[in-house]
Each structure stands twice: as C-alpha cells, then as structure tokens.
Amino acid sequence: MNYTQSTALEMARAIREGKVTSPELVQAAKARIEDVDGSIRAMTALDWEAAMRRAEEVQARIDRGEDMGRLAGVPMAIKDNICMRGLPAACGSKMLLEFNPPYDATAVDKLQGAGAVIVGHTNMDEFAMGSTTETSFHGATHNPWNLQKTPGGSSGGSAAAVAACELPCALGSDTGGSIRQPAAFCGVTGFKPTYGAVSRYGLIAYASSLDQIGPLARDAADCAAIYDIIHGKDVHDATTVDSVCGALDALDGGICGLRVGVPEEYFAKGLDEDVRARVLETAETLKGLGAQVENFSLGMVKYAVPAYYILACAEASSNLSRFDGIKYGYRADEAEDIVSLMSRSRTEGFGKEVRRRILLGTFVLSSGYYDAYYVKALKVKALIKQAFDAAFAKYDVILSPAAPTTALGIGQSLSDPLKMYLGDIYTVSVNLAGLPAVTFPCGFDRDGMPVGAQLIGPAHGDKTVLRAADAFQRATRFHKMTKGGAL
Amino acid sequence: MKWELVCGLEVHVEMNTRTKIFCGCTTEFGGAPNTHVCPVCTGQPGALPVLNRQVVENAMMTGLALGCDITRLTRFDRKNYFYPDLPKAYQISQLYAPICTKGGIEVTTEEGKKKFIRLHEIHMEEDAGKLVHDPWTESTLCDYNRCGVPLMEIVTEPDFRSAHEVIDFLTKLRSTLQFLGVSDCKMQEGSIRADLNISVRPAGGDKLGTRTEMKNMNSFKAIARAIDTEARRQIETLESGNKVVQETRRWDDNKDASFAMRSKENAQDYRYFPEPDLPPVYIDDAWLDKVRGSLPELADAKRVRYREQYRLTEHDIGILCQSARLCRLLEELVALGTEPKEAANWILSEVLRLCKEAGLDAGDLQLDAGRLAHIIELLTAGKLTRASARQALEAVFADDADVDAFIREKGLLVERDAGAVAAAVDQVLRDNPDAVKKFRTGNEKVYGFLTGQCMKLLRGKADPKDVNAALREALAQ
Amino acid sequence: MDERTLEYIAELSRLALPQEEKAELLAQMQQILDYMELLGAVDTEHAEPLIQAAGLKNVFREDVVQPSYDRERLMANAKKKLDGAYQVPRTVE
After folding, report:
1. Segments forming the whole domain that contains residue A244
2. Is the separation of the CB atoms in A197 and A217 below 8 Å?
C-alpha cells in the first residue's frame, strides 16, 4: 500500500487484511516526517521508540485475532495542548516547554484503547490563541501547498501534517475555528463536534465554554471514525453529554432532500471572490446530489466576533492564571518575592498575543466593566444561539465558507490583531452556539491554494454534517488532491 | 459619647465529606505534604472539576435547618486571585446564585433577651492549601492536601451588637452543624473559622460606620477578645478625631492584638464570573423533600423528647444536648435496651469523667455503645459490682477492651455462692462483736462498716445485694 | 483605555508591561475594545445570559474516595521543591 495516498480507514483495513503491519506504517510515518517535516515544521514532539513499541503491541493483539476497532494500528498525532504521559505538551509556549503531563487526556485514553498509535505532538499557536500557527514558541509551521504561507491555526500543525501526508489524521482543538480554518487552508477535512460530545479532560484549556477536541483527516469518513472513538460522556468532564454515536456507519452517501441553508450575510463584502465562487459551486454540487439549497438571512452575524473575543479572552485570563511558575512550567530565576516570581515567570513565559488576550480578558471581567462587556456578550451569545435555532427549524445544515480568504502569507497578519480576529467570522458563532461543523476542501483559488467550505449542523447533528460532507466527497475529488510527493 | 458595636460574621465550615468537593481525593486531616492530591486539586493543566453530590446535600441540610430559602438554580463562580496556596489561581465559589439565602439563628443577649441574627447567605466553595514558613531556607512551602476540601461559608447580616451575641451564635451554629452531621467543627483543626466585620457607630444610630475585617481567629476566646479590642481601637480612633480605615486586619493571639495586613493584600478585584466547567445545580421539589425528610433530629427536638420520653432531668438534658456525640451515645444505649436514666447517669458521670481525665473533647469520643450497654446490663443483672463495672468501662475507654474477656481475666464476675456469703457474714460477726453490739443498740452507722468487711472477705466478687440480705438476716437474729 | 487602567489590569494579571510595548499595546487594546463596542447596538433587554450552550444541569460525582496520585509523579514538573512541598519565596511568617 502507498502510505502517503491512504486514509486512516484504508490503512487500518490493510493491517486487518495482513497487507501491512502497524510497525511498518509507523516506519513509513517516520520516513515521511523525516523527509518533509524539516520544511513543514508541523511536529513539535516525537517519540518513535514508544510509538514502535505501541505499534508492535497493537499488531500482536490484532494478530491474535482481537477486534480492536476500525482504526487499530494507524499512526496519528495530537495537538500540542492535549495531555499524554511521556510526551511534553508545550501548547506552543515557552511557558510549558518542558511540561510532561502527569496524566492522559480522555481522548488520548480512548484512542489508545482503540489501538491508535500516537507518535507525537503537532504545532499550534501559543495556547491556541491565533489563526496562523506563527505565535508558537517552536516557530511557525508552513503550509504544504505553499511554504511561504501559513497553514492557518491554531491547529496548523495537525492540518499541515495531514496535508503533507506525514500522518493520515491528527487531533486538534477548536475554540473559535482552530480545527476548521487550518483544515480549510491546508485542503484537509476538519471536524468540530457538538460542545460536550468529546471530553475536554486533558485538553489544556483556552476558553472552557468553547473548547472542543476534534479530528483533522483526509476525508469525512476518517473524521467520523475518529469521532466514533473519542466521543462520549466522561466522568472527568462534567460538561460532556450523551452524544450520538455510529457516525461512520451513518455515511451512506444519501443527502437527497437534505435542506441546506445558505446565509446571505456570509457572502457579503470582505469575502474573497474565489472563495465565494468555490463555496457557491459546492452548493450547486449538493443540489445536484438531491439537496434543497436555499438562501436565507441568519442574523446576528456581525456580533459573533466581538462576543467571541470577550468571552474567550475572559475565560482565558482565568484559565491561564495557573501558570505562575510554581507547580509546572517556566519559572523566572532569582525572584525575590512571590509577586515578582509570578509576574516575571508569566511575562517571560507567555508570548505577546497570549499576554494581550489575558489583559483583554482581565479588563472585561474587572470591576465596573463586567456587565458592560462580559454579561452583554453572554446575552448576545444567547441571541446568536436563538438565530441558529430558528435556522435549524428550517434547514438540516448551513453551508458557509470556512474563512474569508485562503491561507495568508507568513508574517502577513501578525501586526494587526483586529484584522486577524475578523478572519474568524465564519467559525466563531459555531462555538458560541455549541454546534457541530465540518470544513472540507471544495476547490482552489487563483494561486492554487485550497478553499474550504463549512457545513454547520444543529446541536447533536454531528452525524448529519459528516454525512453531508462525505456525500460531497463521494462526488468530488478535491480531498484526494494531496501534497504527498516531494515538497 | 456612647458607642455601639456593629458586627457581622463570615463563618467558614469545613464539611466532613469523605472526598473533596471536585475530585475523589480524601479529605482526611493530616498526611505528609501533597499526598492527598491529584491533577484536579493541584490545578494541573487540562484537569476539570466534577461536583461532589454530598456537598450540595450538606449545604441543603444546613440551609433547611437554619430556615434559609434554598436557591432552586444554584451555580458556581470563579473568584480569581493569585496566591501560592491557590493552585488554579481561582477559587471555585458562589457569588451570583448561592445555594441558600436568608434564614437565621436566635441568640440570647447579655440581658437575657431573645434576638434573631439574620443570615445573608450560605455558599459552597473549595478550601485553599496550607503555606508553611521554612526557617532554614527562608522560604515558604506549599502543601495542597487541603486544596479542594469542601467549605460552606455562612454569612450573617451585621446584626451583632456584642461579643456575647457572637459567641452564642457560634455555639448554636456549631451545635446545629454537629447534630446535622455535616461538619466536625473542630476549631483546632481549622474546620470552623470565622472572619469578623467590625464597625462602631454612635449608639442607636442607623448609619453603618467604616468597617474592618478581622481574620485568623482560632478560638471562641480569641473571637471575643478580637471584637472587644477592635471596637475599642475604632472608638479611640474616632474620639481622637481620626477616621477608621477600611482594611483587613490579622488577629495575633499571642500578642492579643490585631495588625493591618499589607495594602497589597487589601486591593482586590476578584473578577468573578460563572464557572464554565460546572453545569448549574437544579434543586427540584422531589430532591428538596428527600433531603428534608433525611434531616436528623436537632437539639431543640431532642430536649423535648428526652424530657417527655426519657424522663431525664433538665440538668442532664442541658449537658447532653450540648454534644451531638453524647446524644448519639445515649440513643444508642437506649436502643440497646439500657434504661434511659441509667444510660444518662453513666454518660454524665463515668464517660464524661474519663473524657476529662484524658483531656478529650466529648465530640472526639471513640466509645462502642454496645460495650457500654453490655457492662450496664451485667451490672443491672447483679453480675458485676458497680466498682467492677467502672473498671471494665475504663478498659473499654482506654483500649476498646472486650468486656467479657476483661472480666474473666480480672475475675470480676460476681459469684453466687450462698455458702461463702454465709460463712463470711458469720466470721465478720464473730470478729467484730463491738460493732454488732452497737448496731443492735440502734447505731445504724456501723452497718456500712460491716458490709465492707464482708465484701473484703469475699474479695468483692459477691453481689452486694446477696451480702446485704444475709447480713441483715444474721443481725436480726 | 488609559495607561493607568492598563497598568491596573496588568497588575491584576500578574504581567509586567515592558515600557517599549506599552504604547502599541494601549493602541491595540483600544482598537479592539472600540470594536467590541459594536455589541452596544444589540437589544439584549429580553435576553438571558447564556453561560453554557449545552444546557446541562446536575452533573455529580458520588462521595467515594479515589486513590490520590503519587507525589513524585504529580510534582515532577515543579522547578523548586522541598520536603514534598512546592517551594516559593517567603510569603508567610
């Protein structure tokens, strides 16, 4: 089998059929990563010895005839903010450069229980705050489609690793689009499940009410297979819900009669012409497959980004307070008192964007501003959810672009934070409303960069959006166009 | 000018749940530093809290017992501040929707009048860790074993006008919490601690003066001292034409004085916001009814029942009802068949004496009611003398001795040997002709001496009743 | 936002403000806050704050003791330790 041309499900099937072994796949992953990751820089931590041991163990169990599930033996990676024992989880930050998690995230536990072989961590924007993977202390990750461009972010390492065929799939996390936008920019499929469907236990928090772990892979089928493994109620995460399962088995290609709403506001000024054209073509393709596509007005769209940044920064300011130099992470030398120990450790350990968001978050929660900013944003969040509820009374899914543009050049967006925040316009409302959404490749722009479309579903409509994306992929070949060759 | 004290309390009570509020670590007191900890209570990145149901029910029980309104939709909030005893740098607490509001406790003023102290609220929160100064390295050591131990914070309105009222309130509150079984309320282990808000104003005024907050009191005595001292300090400040500064002060028990904490510790902006990691708690009628139904009998109800059902004296009831532990022992003894008065007598005379001798608080008493009941049963059946029974209880108290084995080993069982009793009586009468003569001429006082001589000959192993009967009979001849 | 406010929230956040970053940061923060003012236009009079989109309630653990973690494992990431405790500059007497 051809390692760089195969999906995770194909690899696992090949293992079960005896055509390849898990250790051979891990070897192939190692070779490919050594070959191309020098220019991509998607991986931040790798442990091949542990991965090989693990692969041999899984292979032995498969050889004994044990049914370990549909992705057993497949090598994959996880984002640098997901805890796994034995693998430093740095969150792309100097603050956590040497942090060895004392426990496994629930998602990691479940993947390993299903025989997945986790080989390492992928790069990300520092503490998932960014949309370019440039703010990482490990350095920027490069887009396999054009090394001068960013892979998007914050799960840019996961997206780039899959796009460069280093690994068939990886976990990311999505707080305001951090799975979906890089997936779109790198021409892969990224899925953000319904809030609470996947346990956040072991995901180093950015904004607790918005964070969600999800897969990035070649196609919707792989995403569904990973979702089937990692989802479910968790005793360690009180915000998990009893969620739908059997996503992979629900992929039957049938979307006849599926009601697709296309929000007019998502195609207004500011949207790149090529992106607009590709997404509208996607609507046509869906129509051709039997879906009923209709334009409508969603409402509240322009308020999503400011509400998102208020809430996300507020929670982040609190979540990141625990990094004070005492229990783990960077500790400033020779601090003479406790206040300067904490203050210097934090100032020296955090990068600029992280510090900016902590300050913003502290401000909107501080005495005298809480109601005007934080409570106001919570109310706007309620209205945004209502707008989606109303839309899902009429439609099964909502189609939109994943981002206003394709991938930007490295260094192009860092100088203007507000401009960068506005790039999240199509993704953040999904997190505010706690909805499932998938982005998938739907063509290319004038420069040959991938364009991503997004399908949003109602809460617990995870299967529906995956089924729709899968149906599109059965009818198209964009997801098959990979950067599997020399880079 | 005549001044008036205005005081409010914030009482922190550690609950006696088995596990912490948000993780399964034990709440057991002590333990080597950082051995009762896990990723959740040490604030590891990525760890999440999950609420202990018992904590909510304990707070509900307390609220019901204190006549509070129970908040049907109660939530947790984050209180953000940096301090090395707080590993997440936020305390999960309740600000916007605390579990209980209103309610109160009736106290007795110095003049003997009844007065109702209103509660503002009761909320649930997590405790912080312990910081210890290390003199060798001139540094501070952080132990997170106490992090996440569940607390209730009981906040009163500023209704107190004297230290006496505060102490009476705390005594009644502690009793209620102990009867409810929600806290051990051991002040020396810090499981009940109070912060005081103290201000003064011209007597009879209705405007509140500037208040100071007093922390770190670890005994009722210290609380009373701190209130009086601080009120005097404020009055002196005002009378000398200065203003009271709103500040937090630390009570130093050794110096018998309070000191203002550094201003840095005073400036606080806690940036409370709803805890996103915990769904809200919705208390419906069914749950509330269930908890209400499980409320144990409190001191007031016990007083009535002990009077009417057990026929105990007001004096005995008064002492017993100060301690939930003693009430439990009494009720266990009665349930095991001991006559209530006899049970009360044993507790109030023997058990309390042993506690006192051992320097033990009655609340910490470890005594198996079954063993005491067995001793009393043997005594009543005439198989033990009162002195032997006492001896047996001491052994049970000291090292949980097995009663029957102890009695056998020490040969304490009363022997029913009528011949031996008759022989002993005979000999005593023969050996003490003077005493016998005195008795027969009407001197009843020597009777005790004669009984004592008989018991001595029998080495205390006869039933005094048997000896009594035989002696009376012999003397009557 | 003025410089004093910025310094105040920096102190609350335990972050130092490098002098050379202050002006730029202040301008950026102001720009972002101005943008957030957009929400002022939304009529939220009849909206209840939505804290959690999933709408969950009453999620509990039972009061059953779980084994605590091995101290060495949990404290392995701490830079300064003494006698099984985390060590910090003198904070209490």
Report:
1. 3-254
2. no
Q: What are phi and psi of B120, to 5 degrees?
A: -85, -50
Q: Decide if A338 and B44 are in contact by the 8 Å CB cutoff.
A: no
Query: Would C27 be classed as within a structural domain?
Result: yes
pLDDT digits (tens, 9 = 90+) for B97-114: 999 999 999 999 999 999
Give A215's strand partners.
A171
Residue of C nearest to B55 (CA): C63
A432/A307 Cα distance (integer angstroms): 8
User: CATH no. for residue A109?
Assistant: 3.90.1300.10
Query: Mean pLDDT over residues B259-272, rounded?
Result: 76
Q: Cβ C54–A352 below 8 Å, yes or no? A: no
Residue A415 lies in a domain: no
Given the structure tokens 């909510």, which residue do they identify?
B56
Range of the domain at C10: 3-40
Mutation to test the A interface, candidates B52, B77, B262, B273, most A Cβ within 10 Å: B273
Distance CA A474, CA B150 (A): 55
With contacts defined as CB-CB under 8 Å, which chain C residues touch A327?
Answer: 75, 77-78, 86
**Nearest-angstrom CA–CA distance, C43 and A382:** 12
CB B278 within 8 A of CB A238: yes
Residue A429 in domain: no
The angle at the Cα of B58, spanning B146 to B197, to the nearest 5 degrees, equals 65
In angstroms, what CA-CA distances link B131 with A421, B83, B84, B277, C67? Answer: 42, 10, 8, 27, 24
Which of A109, A319, A323, A378 to mutate against chain B (most B CBs within 10 Å)? A319
| Whole-number CA gyration radius for chain C | 23
What pTM was computed for the model?
0.91
Give me the number of domains chain C comprises. Answer: 1
Site of tokens 């057990």 = B310
Task: Compare CB distances from C69 to A102, A194, A418 and report the shortest one's residue.
Answer: A102
Distance set, CA C72 to CA B38, B84, C84 (Å): 11, 19, 8
Q: Which two tokens stand for residue B172?
A: 């009644």
Would an 8 Å CB–CB cutoff place B293 in contact with chain A?
A: no
Residue ranges of chain B that CATH labels 1.10.10 = 418-476
In a domain, C77, yes or no: no
ipTM: 0.97
Q: Are A419 and A309 a contacting pair, CB within 8 Å?
A: no
Chain position carrying tokens 């104003």: B201
Q: How confident is the model over A133-156, as a mean pLDDT?
A: 97
Can you name the CATH fold of B418-476? Arc Repressor Mutant, subunit A (1.10.10)
Would you say residue C84 lies in a domain? no
Phi first, then psi: give them for residue A158, nearest 5 degrees. Answer: -65, -45
Measure the CA–CA gap between C91 and C93, rounded to whole angstroms: 7
Q: Does pLDDT of A448 surpass 90?
A: yes
Alpha helices (H) in B312-442, listed in sequence order = 314-320, 324-335, 340-345, 352-358, 369-380, 386-399, 403-410, 418-431, 433-440
B88, pLDDT greater than 90: yes
pLDDT attached to residue A231: 97
Taken in order A153, A159, A163, A165, the sign of the CA dihedral is: positive
- Residue A438 CA to residue B262 CA, distance in Å, equals 54
**Residue at token pair 């590891």:** B44
Does residue A441 sit within a domain? no
Q: Give the whole-angstrom CA distance, residue B85 versus residue B439.
A: 78
DSSP string, A230-283: HBS-BTTBTT-------TGGG--S--TT-EEEEEGGGGSTTS-HHHHHHHHHHH
**Cα separation, B137 vs B152, whole angstroms:** 35
Residue A328 in any domain: the answer is: no
How many cross-chain Cβ pairs, B to C, lie less than 8 Å apart?
126
**Position of tokens 């409010």?**
B8
Per the CB < 8 Å rule, is A382 touching C49? Answer: yes
